[in-house]
Amino acid sequence: MTGSSCLNLSDSELGLRADRLSTLMSLCCLCPRKCGVDRASKKGYCRSGLLAGVASHNIHFGEEPPISGTRGSGTVFFHHCTMKCLFCQNYPISQLHDFPEVDDQGLSAMFLELQKRGAHNVNLVTPTHFVPQIVRAVRLARREGLKIPLVYNTSGYERKETIELLEGIVDIYLPDMKYADDGLAVRYSDAKDYVRNNRESVLEMYRQTGPLVTDASGIAVRGLIIRHLVLPGAAGDSKKVLDFIASKISRDAVVSLMSQYFPAWKAPESAGTAGPLTHEEYDGIVEYALSLGLENSLIQDLDAAGNS
Question: Domain spanning 5-299 has what CATH number?
């Protein structure tokens, strides 16, 4: 299996999906916050309007091996976010600065450029608040020959209703499952009702694409990779996240256990997030994942991530 699954959707169907998503944005309820603002005249929590803001688009080799592969992932970093994680490592993009806005044609051109440069995929980083613009741009790009898979790289703070409209468009879902405790989600990320929305959405992603499928070279072409950033002092919460994956999604699920936590942005000011992640904490979560039968876990080198 190669190429993007959106090739199986008609141009008119892509247009209908884009229209339905645009309706959700008109009184915005794309994400669980459901601000209800008309993005044509007002900005909601995500501080975004009608056009997509793009911080950068480039070839990136720092994703999971099935995503980066040998030629790199074609990342498109969107500005702003639907969350405010105290420890966000990309906080200048997600929280502080505005970046140039591009219209649908400009976004489409970025996708095609990344394909021309040899990227294995178009990797949409923090895409939730720009889903209508993305689908319209995909439609334009497909007319010009876009064929590589689309990666939906998200915090996991999603509405199932929005994800449902991406069926047959997104090939590879790369969501975070950050928390199993809504108290932590509110405290660390200002994300009310994260757990229910996250779980419903990830289950829908898995329903759409199934487990990870790779080509003969080990490059992802379809499926789900779940990311979980191991936080200091939150082993119990990490274990509950892994329990859910093993029992409700699949023990065959690919879980990327991320060790690169460090106290970025406002984390040094907050009790519980000010310290580094230790070897003992990370290794304990890896062992627990394996004990649950999550044998497809992707394990990082904590020292390489710069922790102690």
Answer: 3.20.20.70
